[in-house]
Write a structure and sequence with these properties.
single chain; alpha+beta; two-stranded antiparallel sheet; 8 strands
Length: 167
């Protein structure tokens, strides 16, 4: 019963609180720190299928340099393991989303609001098509490549939105 309750508490906890707890665990226990390092850090500095090794400014191969194991891809917006980033790991669209005029034929923007909004693309993916492949907005990508790390959220990182029900 305690495991179930603990799992529920972890799943409902705020991201900042969880980050603080993990940091505290790492300070209190070397075993915990070692476990977290193993899970969240990697020595990999190049794509997993690359023949090259990373070199410093003097051309000397870098060895043992640690970095975050997981990143968010700038293109597909998915989390990926940087040590397993292969040339076909990222499945994405390189085009733009366009409105499918047949889908929106009865939509009145004065009454129902604007169509070309992010919320509408999520709620009505069938109302938008990728110009690169003509598939709906929620379709899997039509092109592959390496994941490209999105560093725009550094140093804060992604935070969970806190819902507020009161004034």
């Amino acid at each position: 019963m305690a495991d179930k309750t603990l799992n529920q508490a972890i799943e409902s906890a705020d991201t900042e609180r969880l980050q603080k707890i993990v940091k505290d665990l790492c300070q209190r226990s070397s075993d915990s720190k070692e476990f977290v390092e193993k899970e969240l850090l990697t020595d990999e500095t190049e794509p997993a299928d690359s023949k090259e090794t990373s070199k410093d400014s003097n051309g000397v191969p870098q060895q043992g340099k640690k970095r975050a194991r997981y990143a968010i891809c700038l293109r597909c917006r998915e989390e990926y393991d940087v040590s397993k980033n292969l040339k076909d790991s990222c499945l994405r669209h390189e085009g733009e989303l366009e409105q499918d005029s047949e889908f929106w034929v009865d939509h009145d923007e004065d009454c129902h609001g604007p169509i070309d909004e992010d919320e509408m693309k999520v709620e009505y993916p069938e109302g938008f098509r990728w110009d690169c492949c003509e598939e709906h907005a929620d379709s899997k990508g039509c092109e592959t490549g390496y994941h490209e790390e999105d560093t725009s959220h550094w140093p804060k990182g992604a935070k969970r939105y806190r819902w507020s029900y009161g004034p």
